[in-house]
Design brief:
Length: about 350
């Protein structure tokens, strides 16, 4: 078991690195766009959240006229000052736009954006930093989590399913809230066992596969037969535990079934709650290139296809019509999905 997990861990360190006519602007309105991207903990290669952002940057580099893209990574346990320094370095080196991946950048970005009013910034997953040069790219995680919660309940053969969050924050609680509501929609009597890997301001829960593996093993032993993990790179450990114990898990952010580093355990990944961070990153870069930057909150919800559930592997094909029905209900506002978990969970 440990050896299998150890083979996956080195992949966490994978490092980076139309014009048209008519009323619609050309995709890039100026030559030499320099894009800076500051990752959250785990960086490119986390098989989840950061990789979704990297996918958007890669698409932009392929489809748009970008002179240079610079990627910088965070380290576990770093201070806000370290995040400030990373953002400041990108702005000082004339990268514009600059993208901060993750809510932990909110306070650092607020400060740095004030120092560089001519630089356009995007903050993913938070609306706490505001300003004329800040775009807030946020998602309806609760809505996507509702659908995978319904999938978990429909596929479960136990009286319990599980949820593992990386760090106990309001953002990750949105995943929990939606998941619980989706489970309850299918089976009000089914329990949702909940565990967080760390408590804020300790964000190590997003980059600790060993903690994810131990937590998942505990939930499976308590009776859960499907566990939804919203914990970045720590999901690798959850999938390993599911594989070892013959159970199933649900991934997050990217379609984790398709991640090359997870090929040995992909058969336990029932589905994934997809956040289209890649779409948000690409569209932000595209709009910056068109000189069509828009400050403020830009929400990627279910109706906008900003969140979804994965069908890779075919494990949820048989319940597809039921999930599609629930999706329509949310998009049409016939179903209201909570953003905070039930009391006592």
């Amino acid at each position: 078991m440990r050896h299998a997990l150890a083979r996956l861990l080195p992949l966490l360190a994978v490092a980076a690195m139309v014009t048209g006519c008519g009323a619609e602007p050309a995709p890039v309105a100026r030559e030499g766009l320099r894009v800076g991207l500051a990752y959250d903990i785990g960086g490119r290669g986390d098989q989840s959240f950061n990789d979704a952002a990297a996918k958007g940057l890669d698409r932009a580099a392929k489809e748009l006229k970008i002179a240079k893209a610079q990627e910088l990574e965070a380290t576990a346990g770093e201070s806000d000052q370290a995040k400030e320094q990373r953002l400041r370095l990108l702005a000082q080196q004339d990268f514009d736009p600059v993208i901060a991946v993750g809510f932990a950048y909110a306070k650092p970005l607020q400060k740095v954006a004030g120092e560089f009013p001519g630089t356009r910034f995007a903050l993913i997953d938070s609306s706490e930093a505001t300003g004329a040069n800040i775009a807030n790219l946020v998602f309806a995680e609760n809505e996507g989590s509702y659908l995978v919660g319904a999938a978990a309940a429909l596929k479960s053969r136990s009286d319990s399913v599980g949820f593992i969050g990386g760090t106990n924050t309001p953002l990750i609680q949105k995943f929990q809230a939606g998941y619980e509501a989706g489970v309850a929609r299918i089976d009000p009597n089914k329990k949702v066992l909940v565990q967080y890997l760390s408590q804020a301001p300790d964000f190590s829960g997003f980059s600790s596969p060993d903690k994810g593996q131990v937590a998942a093993k505990g939930l499976y032993q308590r009776g859960a037969d499907v566990v939804f993990v919203a914990a970045g790179a720590s999901s690798i450990g959850v999938f390993q535990a599911a594989h070892d114990l013959g159970e199933r898990a649900i991934g997050v952010d990217s379609d984790q079934y398709l991640q090359p580093a997870l090929s040995a355990v992909k058969d336990v990944i029932l589905t994934s709650m997809i956040k289209r961070v890649d779409t948000a990153v690409f569209e932000f870069i595209r709009d910056a290139g068109r000189n069509a930057f828009k400050p403020g909150e830009q929400s990627y919800d279910l109706k906008r296809d900003g969140v979804a559930y994965a069908t890779s592997g075919g494990f949820v094909d048989d319940i597809g019509p039921r999930l599609a029905e629930l999706r329509r209900g949310i998009a049409n506002k016939e179903i209201t999905v909570p953003t905070t978990p039930k009391a006592g969970t």
